[in-house]
Amino acid sequence: MKVDRLISIVLVLLDKNRISAQELADMFEVSLRTIYRDIDAIELAGIPIRSTSGVGGGFEIMPNYKIDKKVFSTADLSAILIGLSSISNMIQSDELRNALAKVKSFIPTERAKEIELKVNQIYIDFSQWIGNSNIQSYIEIIKVALQENKLLSFDYIAHRGNKTTRVVEPYQLVLKSTHWYLYGYCLKRNDFRLFRLSRMSTLQKQKETFIPRDYQKPKLEFADVLATLQTNIKIRIHKSIVDRVLDYCPYENFIPDDKEHYIVSFPFIENDYYYDIVLSFGDKCECLEPLHVREKMKQRIYDIASLYKK
């Protein structure tokens, strides 16, 4: 007896005034005997179902148990559909498709067009423009491992290119700032770790299962840490890269310098990642201060130039 079929039958009964056993059997592609067993199970769960015989007969939930579809506002249904549709763009599963279908069953006919317009006003697509083509398949592997409590193994490229082989107990699949991560207990480090999917290779679900351990969710909000580490540097940029710089700081940080340039107070942490960001602006950006950051930028540019002189 499948629980999802029982839930679906309940939703169908809530949606219709009355439906015959044969219609239910055809809808769920099971025998009449199975439908009668399902109805008995639903009644045992405390949901009052009334059956009538003869022409036009069938099953129905007692009227006083009916859920009024109007209990969901247009905004409620739109928000649910936007969320489910956005996730289903990246994570393919029967559960999500069924959930979408069930939520749509609550939409009254007279409000269907209005809700469709509201849902289409916001479109969220988590798929990448470019990047690692393995991400989608890795998400599917991790999702199954999470459901089955199976170990995962993979090769991982860590900081500064160090490559290691990991075996991990998976606990969460995390999307943070357009990047997917696996949060799990690493048997190599004997601790919880956050692994970026784009840095994985040869990901495989193992046959071994594990007993889930207590854990705390990963810390994904770093505002307090950034407040202590982050400073602002002064850069001079050409107007042609304003759109790119806006990805990292608000327009309030821009002061016109002349018709072609801006002086920008740019958020910065002294590590390779932030130096690489500034370097990515190429000859359209000059670091003005502080002096020690400017000098390090000059050294990095010199090192790059030296590489191409060989």
Automatic annotation (TrEMBL):
Top-level taxon of origin: Bacteria
Entry keyword annotation includes DNA-binding: yes
Organism the protein comes from: Longicatena caecimuris
Domain HTH deoR-type: 2-57
The protein, known as: Putative DNA-binding transcriptional regulator YafY
Signal peptide, first to last residue: none
Pfam families: HTH_11 (PF08279), WCX (PF25583), WYL (PF13280)
Keyword Transcription regulation among record annotations: yes
GO molecular function terms listed in the Swiss-Prot or TrEMBL record: DNA binding; DNA-binding transcription factor activity
SUPFAM superfamilies referenced in this protein's UniProt entry, alphabetically: Winged helix' DNA-binding domain
Lineage, uppermost ranks: Bacteria, Bacillati, Bacillota, Erysipelotrichia, Erysipelotrichales
UniProt keyword list: DNA-binding, Transcription, Transcription regulation
